[in-house]
Write a structure and sequence with these properties.
single chain; alpha+beta; 3-stranded antiparallel sheet; 3 strands; 26% strand; elongated
């Protein structure tokens, strides 16, 4: 039996197919889950912009919701609507909470569920 390393190098066909399958699976997951997190970053940026507004404590709930709606439309956010955002306003205290989940179909009956819960608080309660 020849045991020299010269004849025992490289991948077999089965191991090469297995490795390519794993790489393909990770690429598929990246393409399916990546846009969900890009959308989420747009939601976080919209909430941060609301938080950084100088006179946000004096605005009404409708004005805040309208501002969020404009930001969501401008950034093509489809995972959550401004009407689904919870807004709590008491005096100079403002709490805006965006709690939502996204279900993305991967293959067949296999899906992935991603849950998000983002909160901003401005002012004193």
């Amino acid at each position: 039996m020849n045991t020299s390393t010269k004849h025992q190098q490289g991948y077999t066909l089965i191991s090469l197919i297995f490795i390519l399958g794993l790489i393909g699976l990770f690429v598929l997951l990246l393409f399916k889950i990546g846009p969900i997190y890009l959308d989420h970053s747009k939601v976080v940026n919209a909430l941060a912009a609301i938080e950084e507004t100088t006179d946000v404590e004096t605005k009404t709930e409708a004005e805040i919701r309208s501002s969020l709606d404009k930001r969501f439309n401008m950034n093509y956010v489809s995972a959550i609507k401004a009407q689904e955002v919870k807004i709590l306003k008491r005096g100079n205290y403002l709490k805006v909470e965006a709690e939502y989940e996204v279900v993305e179909k991967i293959v067949g009956n296999l899906s992935v569920l991603v849950e998000f819960d983002d909160v901003i608080e401005v002012g004193q309660e």
